[in-house]
User: What shape does this take?
Amino acid sequence: MNPKINISLYWKCQLIGWSVAALYWEYRGFTLSTHFSWLLAALQFISDVVIYVLLTHAYRNFALKHNFQNLNLGNLLKRIIPGAVVMGFAYTLATTVKLYLFQLWFFQSPVQPYAAFFKQNAEAIFIGGTRLMSIWLLAYHMYHYAQREIRTSRENARLAIITREAQLSNLSAQLNPHFLFNSLNNIKALVIDNPKSARRAIDLLSDLLRTSLYNGEVMQISLQDEINLVKDYLELEKLRFEERLQFDIKVDDSLDAMQIPRLSIQTLVENAIKHGIAKRKDGGVITICAAKTGGLVKITVQNPGILKAGDDGVGLKNLRERLALEYKGRATFDITGELHDIVLATISIPSA
Amino acid sequence: MKKLRVLIIDDERNAREEIKLLLKSYPDIEIIGEAKNADDAKEQIEIKKPDLLFLDIQMPEKTGFDLLESLDNVPQVIFTTAYDQYAVKAFEVSAIDYLMKPIREERFAKAMEQLKVKSTKEKDDRIFVKDRQQYHFISWNKVHLIESMDNYARLFFDDKNVFLKTSLNLLEQKLDEVLFFRVNRAQIINLNYIDKIIPLPGGKLKVLLKTGDAIEASDRQSVKLKKLVKT
Assistant: This one.
């Protein structure tokens, strides 16, 4: 058995990068120097890799802790530039100490105080170190920045696709052949029986068609607009179902201007009619509520019926997806079967 | 001429009004009732025995198909629906016609025309059976053999067969005894389909059907069958 050790890309880059740099320094150092020792070479190599990996790793932990990965480009640069200088200084300190100690142990050359050694070498080492650290910082942050950009654009593309799907399915839901043809058939009968209602029904149906045909791009609308749309829809369906369809709408006035996903309540009401009212001989009451509780706005649609476990239709599936994406997980949707054959659908959206 | 007696079945009042309005121009039709769900319809069908149903498919609790399945004898049917998806199904069941709501007058006229053609033919007693996702209208005249299979009766007609959830004993009581004869514990045959009857040694009879099936009658039923054939 050969347990495979999974080394992350970060550690691969760290180890390989610093090893290559350390080898390069060795090559430079020994071609310039007159004597060579394997022990010294090994110690140089190991100390270089260990010191610089630790140094940059400390920086990485600091950056992660202070959320550098979520900054925009401007703010990120504001931190990278001083960061490179500070890192350059830390590099200088670590390197001079290391070199001084090596000199002390291996060459027993006339011992110069550290301060003098530092003074003599610091400038060159600082310039080289700052350059090196700048490269490291840029590589590290640019990689993560690019990753983030890719992720964001992917997410946006997904959102766009889902929105498009939602539009399409809402369109076909609004223009749901069954709903549309039944409404038309109903209007046809009303023309003779009750011309006034027929005229009203044509107005309502026109508005509903207009909304589904032309407002496809709009993702969010005010609660008030959504409720008005739902009222039109219910009024039209009431002409069909007559006394079988009753409804009650209780919306907190202070929430009128709140933005909610377009057609979200409509989807729930349509379901309530399709699976609740239309399936019951005596129909029932659909209750729509919207109220603020704590930091959440709860929108509920309640209808008589029995919840079939497990399968959301296209409408509900889309609604879930849209909530998850538009509110990044802070909105929830639940549909539950309650006592006495009641189905309760709840959307919870953060109020601010 | 005897008027055609019609029952209109739809859960929406306005949809029923529409059919009534369309029927106004047909004086030889008599609307004997309206039903707003399957249970209501079943009751009226059993009491009033209409000749024709205008039947909406999508209704609360039980669909139009469910209604037809629950009937012992199914009248002529014209389906009315706002759904397109049921159109194909309705074709399979060979109803008189299916009409898409809203219904155009000339389309309605065509359905009524077809109705005249069909209803001039002899009226058959028939049932409506769902078997393996397919709906069938089955005339008893066309069923040549019925076999018992556990809790089901298997009906053979044309070159097809369907399962009906009923015991053979229960079914036997409902069947027309001029047409059907119980040959043994597990089989009922349609007398019109008998080709030959061959006596077997020991007094039993073997019945050959025109379809090629060979069925052996039980001792007791062989005696009865002999009498039946003689008369």
